[in-house]
Automatic annotation (TrEMBL):
Signal sequence, renumbered to the chain: 1-18
Domain of life of the organism encoding this protein: Eukaryota
Protein name per its UniProtKB record: BgTH12-07468
Record keywords, A-Z: Signal
């Protein structure tokens, strides 16, 4: 059985332009693809002869929703091709989807460029001063860094790409609250007592964050710039959350989905004869636990950090090679500074 999770961001129900569709799976390197969703703003519905069954959702309010697609026979590449047939793949999501208007983006960049020209050669542009004295915000600066307009350095620079060819340098001189970088409603910690891991929309992409066990510091599981290989941890997060808070439902073919103005529906499990699950032409539905409403969101708390900020991790987290290497390098630098004082 091959399965793929799809995640749909609905910023405003009345707008067909403020939506984003992400597909992820746990196989091989973990597929991650971003697409413009169908014009009706809902999840794609493969035809009955596609060999794919899917869960359905109730779209009551703007938010982030997930759906599961499964097939007993198709290869992963075949499933993806049939799910996204007719959709346009997105190279980089628009900033406007995440509360950053083009005017603010350009104004901040010009302010930083002017300060960079006016500064003394060896002076560093401090991020805290830029935020205090200009119209720039932490989120806009992070977005500028992610598009290679700025290069962020310093102790608290983990919110930005580690490698940059930008000619303007900014020193991240103070910790940055998560709430300044991740929009409320775009942060999804695991429910209950397992809030040490969260899914979030950050810099236009879905990302998995991990929290230190000993303090409210969050860091990215994968490096900024490596989001196209992040399908596996996102899929694992969604699988866990759906199993924990989802409801028993069924995955069905397109012809079995009941169309409703407020969202699609499927026949009740109790009304389906279990013997009808399979017939000569193959399976007709699967039972799964699925969250059919919005992903449960929370206001972000704590600060943005890195692995080295944690004295403890609960449970241990497997980091990418690049993330771990940079963490060790920073730890050695901090330890060396302590030795010299």
């Amino acid at each position: 059985m091959q399965c793929i999770f799809a995640v749909l961001l609905r910023v405003a129900w009345w707008s067909s332009t403020t939506k984003l569709l992400v597909l992820v799976n746990p196989y091989d390197t973990g597929y991650y693809g971003v697409y413009d969703p169908p014009t009706n703003g809902r999840f794609p519905m493969p035809d009955d002869d596609s060999g794919i069954m899917m869960s359905v959702n109730r779209f009551m309010l703007p938010g982030t929703y997930n759906a599961l697609y499964c097939s007993p026979n198709l290869e992963l590449s075949q499933m993806i091709a049939r799910i996204v047939d007719g959709l346009t793949q997105v190279a980089e999501p628009k900033n406007s989807l995440f509360g950053i208007k083009k005017r603010k983006f350009e104004s901040c960049y010009e302010s930083i460029r002017a300060r960079n020209k006016a500064k003394q050669k060896n002076d560093a542009l401090k991020m805290s001063e830029i935020i205090r004295e200009t119209s720039c915000t932490e989120k806009v600066i992070a977005s500028l860094a992610s598009t290679n307009k700025l290069s962020i350095h310093g102790t608290y620079s983990s919110f930005a790409p580690a490698r940059s060819t930008a000619s303007m340098f900014i020193e991240a001189d103070k910790p940055i609250p998560m709430s300044k970088l991740v929009t409320r409603g775009h942060f999804f910690p695991r429910p209950g007592n397992y809030r040490w891991r969260a899914l979030a929309w950050y810099l236009g992409h879905l990302r998995v964050f991990v929290k230190c066990a000993d303090k409210d510091v969050w860091f990215l599981l994968d490096d900024i710039g490596d989001e196209w290989n992040s399908g596996r941890p996102i899929y694992q997060y969604l699988s866990t959350v759906n199993e924990e808070v989802g409801k028993d439902t069924i995955l069905v073919k397109k012809s079995k989905i009941l169309r409703r103005p407020w969202g699609d529906a499927v026949p009740s499990i109790s009304k389906i004869d279990s013997t009808a699950a399979h017939s000569r032409d193959g399976p007709h539905y699967y039972k799964r636990k699925i969250l059919t409403g919005r992903l449960p969101a929370s206001k972000p708390w704590g600060t943005f950090g890195s692995r080295v900020d944690c004295a403890e991790l609960d449970p241990p987290v497997e980091l990418s090679h690049k993330n771990d290497r940079l963490g060790r390098k920073r730890f050695k630098k901090l330890y060396k500074n302590k030795e010299t004082h």
